[in-house]
Structures are given as structure tokens and as C-alpha cells.
Task: structure prediction
Amino acid sequence: MPEFRSVFVRAPAKINLFLRILAKEDTGYHQIETLFAAVGLYDELHLDRTDGGVSVDVMGPAVGPEKENLAYRAARALLECVDSKAGVRIQLTKNIPVGAGLGGGSSDAGATLRALNVLLGNPLSEAGLLELAGDLGSDVPFFALGAGAALAWGRGERLTPVPALEDGQIVLALPRVSVSTALAYRELPPFAPRSPSTLDPHEVGRSQWLAEHAVNDFERSVFRRHPRLGEIRDAIAAEGAAVARLTGSGAALYGIFPGRAAAESAGEGLAVGREDVHFKVVEALASQPQPEPRM
Result:
């Protein structure tokens, strides 16, 4: 097997086409049921082999200390798991907003696991990558899987790939607001534990099904703290979206429109008078970009 010196990979954002909170564990973690969809907004990572150690250089919004960066933690975890003496330098270009519910940090971690595995000659199977991903965070297994869309349960580690959204284009609303996921969980209203839904994997990604069934259990509490986000969701719906929802715990929102022209027209209309919000038309991905090795 050839030895690569570097690998490039694009790490996509995700949206939660629906998100239900099922129960709160004694540990404080919450059991969820959600439908992840990877979309065409990307961070970019260049991984270069070194003689030892892990370093991360970030271009874009600050994401905290290096050793708390999820890409750093993912690289460290994989190197330790395979007992590799090699090191890696990661150049990370941040384009996905932080604190938006788009999974940017988790995507960086999942992409790092897949890319570093390639750089090292694929010492881990998909199952091995997913096991590492589950220890890094709730959304990381989806990105380590590399699927375009997947149903997820538990803390996000139980995954079933499903067909990507096939009958619509997505308008992302990116407000200049950051929502704390930990605070969003703390402010959830009291609820009785619920059982997972009975779902048809071939129906959940259709906009007609989503229009009837999609919910996000964070909306009530997040919109109470950030009413502006509720106004944006309603405006997206008023532009003709089949579905308009908060993604994750926010602050980003999405709307599904019947075609590119309708989505672009809606984005232009929504931008009028809302200079504090960036509206971007993106596609749902059939699969996440593959790492690109370089000799």
C-alpha cells in the first residue's frame, strides 16, 4: 500500500431534518431521535504527515484552545488507538459558523478520523472509526460514517443510513447569533420519556413526509430565549418552504423549497431587511466528500 504524505478533505455541515428528545439519562445525557442530512457548506482540512505529535492551525473564527479542538482530539485518539509513531499537522479552514447547530466541530472530527485513517494506510475499519467517533461527541459518528443522510438514535451513535433528500433545495439561514447547546438542553421544558417512532427509511427524506412530521424539540425553549430565530423560521415558511425548522439547538435554520430557482428566489426575498442574517442555498449531499490522498 502506498504511503501518502498528505490528505485533503472537505468537512460538510449537517442539518437535523427533524429532532426529538426521547429521555434524559441519569448521567445527564439525553436520548434523541433525529434525521441527519449533510449539506453543501464545508470546512476544509489539509493533513500532513510529520515525525510525531499533533498540531492544528485554524484559519477563520477562533474555536478555543488547540487541545480542545475536536479535530485535534480525533487525531490524537486515532494515533493512540493504532499505536502509531507518526504525527500529523492539520490545517483547518473554518467556513461553518460556530454555535449554529450545523455540527462544524463534529464534522471536522469525523473528517479528521476518515482522512487520517487514509494517511496511515487504513488501519481501522469503519466500525473502528465509529467506535472512536462515539467517544468524541454525539454528532461525530454521523460524520465518521461518511453518509449523506442517516437516522440516529441514542446519543447519535446508533445510525441507519437513508437516501438523501431528493425532492427539494435547502435555504440555510445563518444569523449572527451563537446558541449554547448545553444551555439549550438545560432549558428544555419538562417532558415524559418517549419511545422512538416507527419510521420508514425510504419516506423520511421526502419533503412531503417532513412537512407532515418534522419537529425540533429545541424550538420552544430556544425561541423563547431568542425570539428573532422564531421570526426567521416563520418568514422562511411564508416564502413557501415545504418545511422550515431550527437545526440542532440552533442558531441556524433551514427551509426546503421545490427546486433551485424557488430556493434562490426565497433566499433573495428573505435577505431584504435582514442584514444580520446570511441566507445560503445548499444541496443535500448523497454522500460526504471522500478524503483525497496526495503522494
About this structure: The two ends are 12 Å apart (CA to CA). The first strand starts at residue 6 and ends at 24.
